[in-house]
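Review form for a predicted model. The reviewer records the input and the model, then writes brief findings.
Reviewer: anonymous (R2)
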Amino acid sequence: MPNPTPLSLKPHAFACMVDDEMIFLDVKNDQYFQLDPKQAPIAAAMLGMSLSNSNKEHHSDAQLSISDAEREAIINKLVDIGVAMRSDGRETTRNTFNDTRSLREAPSLIPVSEPRINVTDILKLARAYIATTIRLRFFGLESSIAHLRKSKRGIPDTLNADDKMNTLFALVERYKTLKPVFVKTQDNCLFNALFLIEFLAMHGEPAELWIGVRVHDFGAHAWVRQGDILIDDFLHTVAQYKPILVV
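Model under review:
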């Protein structure tokens, strides 16, 4: 039996397996793509993705019955939609991952008291709002992700763990207090997440953008983490989504 033709995800493409479904996120075109469930385990193996035990069995059975022409059709499909490219066999960085860390909710999700707000906070939040709006609206998600990667490399890590948590929670409380001045709706989770990350970065606090997907009643959701701390959301909400991208 021939080995699957190796494929690599393009730099702007991300993928994950949700149950028996394979979902792609194309940040260049800001769109999702769902592969035929019968093709999903084979495509995942070609991309070097980790499979669950049930998916591994499905993949083995499918590989026994799939023809070279059908395998080539899957390859061509992924290449044609622009999420993958034929690999030259060398090891590549794959835009897929598994994260098994347990999460904690940030206490600042429910502030116990009114935070102290100063003019600097208001000005930095205004700058963060303008920057996030321009970058996402006029340059798209791919540009926003590139900015996150670049800006995180320039943030020093000088505080100890306790100081970092106290600083982080205080900043998030200020953000949540002031955000309604700039954002009138809670529905745009992606913008809200990018907005918060931009504000934290202006205070020297790194944070991660997470985007997850679900396949039944398809939906996507974005949230913010710092390590195992879920900064701006609730565990019962993010538990509904399988991560597909983290920056």
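Findings: Helices lie at 40-46, 53-65, 68-80, 119-153, 161-182, 189-202, 235-238.
Further findings: Residues 1-5 have pLDDT under 50 and may be disordered.
Recommendation: see findings above.
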